[in-house]
Specification:
alpha/beta, 5-stranded antiparallel beta sheet, 32 helices, 21 strands, 11% strand, binds adenosine-5'-triphosphate
């Protein structure tokens, strides 16, 4: 439906296909465009009749339209000038330029002439909803479903009454890749011009650019294009980078070229061969001209222009001045830094400060060459836009010649090497191949493959590529498989710039990294979560109760771009059935008996801009599942008792300990909802299957002890202030710490740890945490090591009785005086305490070993049974039994 539809499908063929669809419900005749066939089939399935009036297509009231305009004010504001421009260009062809929101609600229209009157008759005007479900195949509605630019000509419209229209529409995506709305040019089909599709695509891109620039106004923004002239056109790539050097956003074009995905999971250096401090230095220059980045090997090139927020410039240049004056004070070499350097010139030293290089250029410090050399970047390209050179600026300084004739970063003018650089060029950390930055490419395209003839062609190609890899369901732009015509390296050809081999763990955000305690399954799970961070992919966390699903969801929230937004957790199992609906979706005042007069926004709306964690979603009643599905699809919430639907933007994370898949098969959970929430399903392993119990115990203990001792320190301080005796209980914790608890070290006796490692922990981490809380509370003031007797009594009883449930659920209990389920014979369990109460049916040899070990410990304790039992982490009676 993109290009084929411009050469409209022959009317006879359309008629035949329509007849077939109506008679058989199928389209075996196959229209030449698969997208058109799909859309017709959808229209048919929606129960629309191609002839006659449209039955009950919704239309917004003027109040609803006003509200929608308010909600979409950013989109409308950025689209308006673009629409005016489009209108000026298409005026002669008697058409209309239309903007719709993401639901197909027409927000604004520009047009004049006779066509507008005709358009009004088919409700092509603000307030009407051109969703495919109501109006059949049409450019706006179909572009929304197909998520790509679409042209629908004359009889290709499913409803015959729209057959006089020719419409071209392109989705407008926000910087996260979500479709915000659609830009459309509609006109009389007889006047249709074949370039309209390219025009509307470019216009939509232009709106996206404006949105991108606004949303990322506080970030460093990079414009990219294989041709210098391509910068500032709708075909350029855009990247946004945080001050720490993380990619935080990118448009489809940039992501396609760089093979990157816009998430904080990638540092800029992973995709562009420029060390971050040096790029920052260059970007902070007042008049930084575009530069050409070229990859070694295949000579593909990208032109880069950077803009930074003014505050960054102030910060970096200010820091630079300070650093310079400090270095001057120390009498250290500062190369040729000029004391009166301008801000832009001063910024040039950032690179060498950051990289530790000491550059000596022999040039005037204010020359461009100076900036580049001092920043560690090679000098500006000699043929790289003469106009970029300031009048009178000196020639670029000499730099280390590249093996292939290019110039290198990573080495200073005297050949001093910069950390991270090697003789062959800069090695991007973890990247497979060294890459060179060639600031000297004569035109940025000399070695580069042929470039697109026009930005329009480029735009068309990118759109076609998007059609190849459409990003479904509001996902971030997927990697584009660039058309060869663009001459731009596809994601594949840039692959060496990525860091597939690197271990990303070092770059995990702290909240995720903190959960990586050494268990390989958990590690894999965290890796997968890390990959989908900041992507609108719904997560489904499954696993037994207490394994830490909520903890994971919270870590995902805290690690992502939404961390400043709300995190709202709802336990669907804990809410009375009658209240879930009101709790989730909100209600209008007095909507039901007992409802408050003011009404309530509901948890979904509370989570707007943040994360909604729906725990135990398997416990949600079926009717509510249907409602939730609708909300997830429409991204709008309708409060109970009526009122306008409100848009919500939430990252959804669902969790359940129930087997949802099986529930779907049994009809207890909606299949459509299951697939909707199942963007990425991960199973959190039970504690008994984890190998990092010791590290987890330490983590939990730190968490348990620190606040306790802090609270006690406070209580003590308070008590002292009131001249009353300090509370006795557990004052040892802060006395151990001596500093309010921060340094308290409580650990678990090794023998007890062995026992714990063999226990099945049916309540998982929750049970472990509770056990440790009790144990810490039971510690005497002088004790810092947890023994079995500190544990809750039920565990003690279970373990000392040898009734510990093993990971393999085998019980052994033939220690004297106990009863067992397996009746395994032998003496004791495995070594140490585990031998006494180890869960897996121990062999006689193991029991013998445990007994021997207990004897040895007793000898070491010079016969002191209490001490030996303490060391072994068991009670005295148990030790007696064991030794018998
Ligand atoms: N990795 C972890 N580090 C520290 N504490 C953890 C970890 N995982 C779980 N916990 C603790 O275990 C308890 C249970 O965790 P959480 O509520 O996340 O489990 P869950 O799987 O969501 O349980 P349920 O299915 O019953 O809701 C919490 O107190 C939590 O703090």
């Amino acid at each position: 439906m993109s290009k084929t539809s411009i050469a409209a499908v022959a009317p006879g063929r359309l008629r035949a296909a329509r007849r077939e669809l109506l008679e058989t419900g199928e389209l075996r005749l196959n229209l030449p465009d698969a997208g058109l066939s799909r859309s017709w089939l959808r229209s048919h399935a929606a129960g629309l009749s191609p002839v006659g009036r449209t039955p009950g297509a919704p239309h917004a009231s003027s109040a609803q339209l006003m509200r929608a305009l308010e909600q979409q004010h950013e989109l409308v504001a950025h689209a308006r000038p673009v629409m005016q421009d489009l209108f000026a260009q298409t005026r002669d062809s008697d058409g209309m330029v239309i903007l719709s929101d993401g639901q197909g609600l027409l927000l604004q229209a520009l047009g004049d002439g006779r066509f507008v009157d005709r358009a009004q008759r088919v409700a092509l005007r603000p307030g009407a909803i051109w969703d495919e479900r109501w109006r059949g195949t049409n450019a706006i509605g179909t572009a929304l479903v197909e998520r790509r630019p679409v042209a629908v000509m004359g009889g290709e419209h499913y409803l015959e009454r729209n057959g006089f229209l020719s419409c071209t529409a392109a989705p407008i995506r926000d910087p996260q890749g979500r479709v915000l709305g659609v830009l459309d040019i509609s006109g009389d089909q007889r006047n249709f011009h074949r370039h309209t599709l390219a025009l509307v695509r470019m216009a939509a891109r232009s709106v996206e650019h404006r949105l991108f620039q606004t949303r990322h106004a506080q970030a460093l923004r990079l414009q990219l294009h294989p041709q210098r002239e391509g910068l500032d056109t709708a075909g350029e790539g855009l990247l946004a980078v945080s001050e720490e050097g993380w990619i935080i956003g990118g448009n489809e074009t940039a992501l396609g070229w760089l093979g990157a995905e816009a998430s904080r999971s990638l540092r800029l250096e992973a995709v562009l061969p420029i060390p971050w401090p040096q790029l920052l230095t260059w970007a902070c220059m007042d008049d930084a001209a575009p530069q050409c980045v070229r990859r070694e090997g295949d000579a593909t090139a990208l032109w880069v222009r950077a803009s930074v927020p003014a505050a960054w410039r102030r910060r970096w240049v200010g820091a630079e001045r300070l650093a310079l004056s400090e270095r001057n004070d120390e009498g250290a070499s500062i190369g040729h830094a000029h004391p009166d350097r301008t801000a832009g010139a001063a910024s040039g030293a950032m690179g060498d400060l950051a990289s530790g290089a000491n550059l000596s250029t022999g040039r005037h410090p204010e020359s461009h060459g100076m900036h580049h050399a001092r920043s560690g970047l090679a000098s500006p390209p000699s043929g790289c836009g003469e106009s970029d050179r300031r009048p009178g600026a000196s020639e670029p300084v000499s730099v280390i010649p590249a093996l292939d004739g290019g110039e290198r970063i990573g080495a200073d003018a005297r050949g001093l090497s910069v950390p991270g650089a090697d003789a062959r060029g800069l090695s991007v950390p973890g990247s497979a191949a060294p890459v060179a930055v060639d600031w000297n490419a004569p035109d940025g395209g000399r070695d580069a493959p042929a470039m697109p003839a026009t930005p329009a062609a480029d735009a068309a190609d990118a759109a076609d590529a998007a059609a190849v890899a459409p990003s479904a369901g509001g996902l971030l732009p997927s990697r584009l498989a660039q058309s060869p015509r663009t001459g731009v390296p596809s994601a594949r050809t840039w692959t060496p710039l990525q860091m597939p081999e690197r271990s990303p763990d070092a770059e995990w955000p702290a909240p995720l990294a903190a959960l990586d305690l050494g268990d390989p399954t958990v590690h894999q799970l965290l890796r997968r979560l890390h990959k989908v961070l900041n992507k609108p992919i719904t997560l489904l966390l499954q696993g037994e109760s207490g394994v830490g699903k909520d903890v994971l969801a919270r870590a995902v929230h805290d690690s992502g771009l939404r961390c400043k937004g709300p995190y709202v957790a709802v336990n669907c199992a804990a809410l009375p059935e009658g209240l879930i609906e009101a709790e989730l979706f909100g209600y209008r005042g007095g909507a039901f008996t007992g409802a408050s007069r003011e009404g309530a926004a509901g948890r979904l709306r509370q989570a707007h801009g943040g994360t909604l964690f729906l725990d135990e979603i398997g416990d949600m009643p079926l009717p509510l599942q249907a409602r939730l599905l609708r909300v997830l699809q429409d991204r709008q919430v309708q409060p109970l008792g009526g009122g306008a639907a409100v848009s919500v933007d939430v990252q959804l994370i669902c969790a359940s300990h129930r087997p949802l898949r099986a529930m779907v098969e049994e009809g207890r959970f909606r299949e459509d909802l299951y697939y909707r929430i199942n963007g990425l399903a991960l199973t959190v392993p039970p504690l008994r299957a984890r190998t990092d119990l010791a590290a987890l115990v330490q983590r939990l203990l730190r968490r348990i002890v620190a606040p306790q001792s802090q609270a006690q320190a406070q209580a003590q301080a308070q008590a002292q202030a009131q001249h009353s005796p300090a509370p006795y209980q557990n004052t040892h914790l802060q006395s151990i710490a001596g500093n309010g608890g921060a340094g308290v070290e409580v650990s678990v006796a090794p023998s007890l740890m062995t026992l714990m490692q063999r226990y099945a922990w049916p309540g998982n981490v929750r049970q472990l945490e509770q056990a440790l809380r009790v144990a810490v509370a039971m510690l005497e003031p002088w004790e810092r090591e947890i023994q079995i007797e500190h544990l809750p009594e039920d565990l003690q009883a279970e373990w000392t009785a040898g009734e510990v449930t093993a990971t393999d659920a085998t019980h052994w209990t033939d220690a004297p005086g106990t009863t067992g389920t397996t009746g395994t014979t032998g003496t004791t369990g495995p070594s140490g305490l585990a031998g006494l109460s180890g869960p897996a049916a121990p062999s006689a040899a193991l029991r013998g070993h445990a007994k021997a070990h207990a004897r040895q410990v007793l000898t070491e304790c010079q016969g002191n049974v209490s001490e030996a039992a303490r060391r072994l982490g068991i009670g005295r009676n148990t030790l007696y039994r064991l030794l018998r």
